[in-house]
Amino acid sequence: MRDRIEAVLPRVAKPARYIGGELNSIAKAAEEASVRIALAFPDVYEVGMSNLGLRILYHVLNSIDGVAAERVFAPASDMEGEMRRERIPLFSLESSLPVKDFELVGFSLAYEMTYTTVLNMLDLAGIPIPARDRSDDAPIVIAGGHCATNPEPMADFIDAFVIGDGEEVVAELVDAFAANRGDRAGALRAFAAIDGVYVPAIYDAADRKTPIRARWVRDFENAPFPEALVVPHTEIVHDRVALEIMRGCSRGCRFCQAGMITRPVRERSLAALCRQAGTLLDNSGYDEIALTSLSSADYSGIADLVRELIDCYEPRRVGVSLPSLRADAGCVHLAEQIQRVRKSGLTFAPEAGTQRLRDVINKNVTDGDLLAAVEAAVDAGWRRVKLYFMIGLPTETDDDIRGIADLVRKVVDVGRKRGRPLAVNVTISPFVPKPHTPFQWRAMVEPGELDRRISILRPLLRGKNISLNWHEPACSRVEAVLARGDRSLSRVIHEAWKRGGNLEQDNFDASRWEAAFDAAGLDIAGCANRDIPLDAPLAWDHIDVGVSKQFLARENAKADRAETTPDCRWAECVGCGVGCRRVGESASQRVGESAGQRVGESAGQRVGETVPNIQHPTPVTRKVLCTFRKGPEARWLGHLDIVRAFERAVRMSGVNVAYSQGFNPRARLSVVSALPLGATGENELLVLQLVGDVDLVDTARRLNRRLPEGLSITRAELCPGDYRGPVLRASEYVVEVALPEPGSFAALRAAVDDLMRQAQIERVRESGGKRRTIDIRPGIERLSIGPAPAEGTALISMTLPHRDFTVKPSEVIGVLAAAVPGLTTRSAHRRRLIITTDNSCPSF
Known about the structure:
Elements: H1 2-8, E1 35-41, H2 45-48, H3 52-62, E2 67-73, H4 77-86, E3 104-108, H5 115-125, E4 140-144, E5 160-162, H6 170-179, H7 184-192, E6 197-198, E7 212-213, E8 241-244, E9 246-247, H8 257-261, E10 266-267, H9 270-284, E11 288-292, H10 302-313, E12 319-321, H11 329-338, E13 346-351, H12 355-360, H13 367-379, E14 384-391, H14 398-417, E15 423-430, H15 447-460, E16 466-470, H16 473-484, H17 489-498, H18 504-507, H19 510-520, H20 524-528, E17 543-544, H21 549-560, H22 585-588, H23 591-594, H24 597-601, E18 621-630, H25 639-653, E19 669-672, E20 679-691, H26 696-706, E21 711-718, E22 727-738, H27 744-757, E23 762-767, E24 770-775, E25 782-787, E26 793-801, H28 809-819, E27 824-835
């Protein structure tokens, strides 16, 4: 499998997505694993690797003796095309094992529009899509995540659903499977006996007396959390340490599913979080800690936590970020502290443009709160903010729409009045009714009407300081149907997949879904754009997430009266049904009671105090010129991926590297000349700027311990003080090519000779969407050919000078392939030929 995968990687974008072998990844040998589980995320690598839930389950499962959990992501469209053309089945990253050879496959369902991607991944894996068609030797397919709280639309495709916190359940699933190995029906019966597991083929949804109760972690303080995150080769959406400071939210926004299904609120102590942060940074080399939760600013010790982390990690240039902020001045002052290390953006979510409508949705934010927050942001130096609003909310009128524009203009005016222009990015999302929320019975506004309301906003929000973006209403309508649908929606999902549905976030086509609904005999408008009677049975009534249906109905009625409900963490119990008192002291206690006085006392300045922008003195530095090896294991890492790998290794190893000044400091290191993607190299060049005394042997050893497989420093030389860096004269490559037929060697030799006789060779290059024609012949100094050890291959050696442009080996092979059709590259290796300036490192 690995050879077959490698063969197609030259033809796809971002091949590092598909190679595995990342730092801290876990690849257990066959004899170590009695149960193999594929953790499948129905999106591309960059999105899936940003999912904290996946990372937690990967850690929990691989911590169990005899269990091997490996990661699987949806291939991008170009890779999928290659896989189907070459008949390569969906495979795991750790071992390149076909997914169909695993015993359990677990999907994360975080978003309804990933449903067709799940089907596409099953098809790529060779696993029958309908659950009823799977034989005893097929993997058992499990799914969890927020969307599993209404499992019915996917019930025909999933063997078992986990409801609630997955880390509470997975070990029990493994035990149940091991006890029933070889007996698929027996394993599913055992699964159904586990609290929080729904097996559609066994459970009688008509029996409302036995709901499936969601599992949730009660002792969040000691809940499992990975000590070493898998560090991706390539940049991902959230490329940072994600520190989960609390779980759950009690603010009670009536549209918010996550805030309802993750109750009760549970916090980790300051002491535990500081320990976790240190361990994760030491084992990942990240330069940012994101304090993640549904509402991070509601963490009861947030000011002390931010201060402690910044005080501790500012010398290492590690920043702290708060992904979610309340719209109030206190949160802005909190964010201001973060600026000591690096600049970050500010995002607020008023959700609605008028106070009446914010009361309807129980968004306890006023215009005054938002404007005070913006004033504090402008005074603290921010010049850009993002605002999120929703349209189509229950009871919304055109006056509420115009209220969005009025509020945005007030925000812009804050900057104007202070003489500091403020750019405002406005994003509009259609309201989508979700299960287990007070608005689960409400209709979604139909797309045409949503378009009309957006048309009201557009002329009102024109201006050089305002940008307006909105989500596609037609896509949101499909999301609404899938969110509230019953098992009949499985026909629609299957039909949409057959019509090309996959990776819908980037590939949505409204006509495809309309045709799928027509083929299934269902009316999309009737499913989405209608109120559900309060006494009507709901497709998810058999799923108990803790919040009672009676509470949701009361909140729905209060919305009509624009009556708000306070946050029960700071007020009386609102009777939602979760029963927080059952959690015990470990979940309900406040951080100040348990986290230790030391952290609070050492926090120093408190929220609202002025925080200075600390300027680090310019240190005395020395440059070190290193050679490093880029082996076959790292051949598909791009230039920026290599740079990030060295930056992370520097942070993990504690090597005292110099940093740039100002906001967003970067380590002073550079990789000299990008190596072509897919090529290896023995003497690639790295320049490090180090502080203080330098022990070259110790520096190289410490870095090599922290570099991913395939990268290693082989030599280091201390440079003179005025050293400016190496000047490259040329690079020499050895490229192995596959011959189309045995007699092609003579034709290839003739093509090489003919190329070297030419005075001019024009090739077209594309960059930034522009095309230009260049003559590459002056950039080819030497070209020769010889037979390779493998039959049917040849070795082409080429010397390519470094000029105002440098010829790529692929361009040379492209010229030869025009004369020898079918010629393909198998591998490329670079040997450096360099010349340096007069003040160079002598031994180089």
